[in-house]
Amino acid sequence: MEERLQNILSHAGVASRRHSAVIIEEGRVTVNGKVVTEPGARFDPAKVEIVVDGNPVSSEEKTRTIMMYKPMGVLSTMNDPFGGETLADLIRGKIKERLVPVGRLDKDSEGLILMSNDGDLTLRLTHPRYEHEKIYLVKAAGRWSDDKLDILRSPLVINGYQIQPCRVELLRVGRNNVHLLKFYLREGRKRQIRYMCSAARLVVTGLKRIQIGKLCLDENLMPGEWRDLSSEEIAKLVM
After folding, report:
1. What's the pLDDT at 121?
2. Catalytic (active site) residue 106
3. Claim to verify: residue 183 and residue 73 sit in the same structural domain
4. I need a surface site. Which of 18, 161, 208, 232 has the fewest CB within 10 A?
């Protein structure tokens, strides 16, 4: 059966439907040797040869999702034109499937990030309507006062956008003015926690994501290490 090219790429694990459309529009996809730039072009994947960035796409590729402990200093992307270290560098030559990051974690943060070739799972975890809660441990420096929690929990405006109020817990007040907080987010604006802390006159000195939905970061993983998710863990993510 014929289906849209962007859907074929998504089902093959190349990227999410949205990102697949971008890849196609950039002229990086050929079908039977000819460049196709229309994401909605329809083909029968069993009857054509599809190539992305010089790599043949198999419609039979087995889906795979891994949990990674992203280290600080690593970009949560598969390619950086400026030569920075990326997630691709951590798995190159070790994983044969074409995995892509599910969501993002900024360069200066560490912790749980998922990589997958399951387009449907990626969409479900990244689309705002599903609102998967993400939990972060944050070290923040500054003189503490209890009114800072009220600020952090309020509907702040970040870059012209009013964020949803979120749950923030104070775990420890540090004698050296470096405090430990836990943030529960259902949306993920770029560098949101850092902006929130800045509004409360705090400076983030460490940020670690420890949970996505019901999936917790494996305590046995060291920065840069990963493992495959079990079918039970994947089921938790889509509940």
Report:
1. 86
2. yes
3. no
4. 232
